[in-house]
Amino acid sequence: MAIVLYARKSIERENSISCETQLEYCKSVIKPDERNEKVITLVDNGFSGGNINRDGFQKMMNLVRQDKVSKVIVYKLDRISRSLSDFVNILQEFKTHKVEFVSSQESFDTSSPYGELIVKILMIFAEFERTSIINRITQAYAHRSEMGFYMGGRQPYGFELVPTVIHNIHTKKLSPLPAEIEQIRYIYEVYAQESVSLRRLMNILIAENRLPLNGSAWSTAKLSTILKNPIYVKADSDIYDYYERHGVQMVTDVSMFTGEYGAQLYGHTKHKPDNPDWSDMKLVLLTHNGIVDSDIWLKCQRKLEKNKQITNSYSNQTSWLSGKVICEKCGHTMTTIKGKINKSGEMRRYFNCTGKTHKKICTGTKVSIYAEDLENMVYDCICEKLSDLKEAKHITANDHSPEVNELKLKIKAIERSEKQLMDTMLTGGFNEDLLSLANQKATQFKNDKRALYERIDELKSMDDETDVIIDLAKSWKTADYNRKKEVAMIMIHQIIISEDGSTKIIWNI
User: Fold this and answer.
1) Is the CB of residue 181 less than 8 Å from the CB of residue 285?
2) Which H helix or E strand runs over 390?
3) 471-505, pLDDT tens digit by residue?
4) What's the predicted TM-score (pTM) here?
5) I need a labelling partner for 154 at 20 to 30 A (CA). Which of 72, 304, 373, 458 fits?
6) In order of start, what are the domains of the chain with their CATH numbers?
């Protein structure tokens, strides 16, 4: 580990302190017990403090990131940077790598309580600066959106961006490319047909030599992106209702959705399995004319959503029995694979031994174990099992609600004590002894609350075990994928598949 002495001077001035003098001041604050440590001097002569692209500074930071530095000493704080945000980030990086930072002229030492306090204050101001910048950008972005400006992003197929003036502001708008727009109309018309999937749509376009005019190639992902984009729709009240139902924030008033203009969806979708959250998305009407009638566009959306549900139900996930099916011959789990095709040409899922496919130590079963057939058989067995368990409700159920309620009251008491402690701190000032005591008490309160919450969760899980079984028995016939998997995890230990395809279920209950 080494101590780094860093000096910077932007330009030569008669009354400015030289880098050599700065280094002498830096050496003067090296402690007696540090005199035997390696000292590295790094200098940036003729560099501004407004940016961090300096040779000496970058060498120093590289040494810090390699954990070769124990302390950095400078003449004054502004020798590191004149940018508050840069300075705070540098201090944060020093802290991450356990590097002390000392200013020889300002009694600034991050190893001292005073230095730590100053760092925290600087970070608060830097966070305020960052937040202010973000708010200004967000407000400007929202204002552009309200005026119908194109909100950026990848240029959609079928359009080019051309200069325009909106509300006396120079910007750009989408202008249709006739040949590409004709392809867009055809894509929507074909996909809107009942029997046409994305794969078949792609094959039709390729067979008819309707290739993208920008030199790329069609894919199902690219076609899906086009079909979902409201840029192409003649946005009317039905489009407004569609996005409003999905939780999208509507920037443009409904009265403007006359079916004349296209729209743009922007923001960030929070993806969740089977249920994307669109609450952070916004829809705004733009100034270009729509291409596709709203009824055709909405029909395509319904098809895309239906396809997604089908895909999700057969993705791997693939079977709600996954993890439970075991090959008797080798003892390894069996996972589902898509690949077996029946006489109707449909793809079927089947279970395959991982000892065969991954470990290469097993020959697997002699017959195909179709996932749907095994699921149906196990489904019927669980129905029978649940019917037997239904009558055991009063024998196995335990009610811990009084104890849970008592634990919640204890948590409330701790929260009141936390509030009293905070009030005492605010009225008594930030005395060092008080802060030390407050930190100890706060830690104790936190640990006590965690233990109480863990006990509550434990008691609830004991109460819920039987209730889950009872609820599943009532709704089993309409259970979805996740509920079936939940039941299988509770009730089944293993499903053993022998070489000849015979099956044995080992129950947990």
Assistant:
1) no
2) helix 371-390
3) 445 556 556 677 788 788 878 889 999 999 999 99
4) 0.41
5) 304
6) 2-130 (3.40.50.1390), 159-313 (3.90.1750), 316-509 (no CATH)
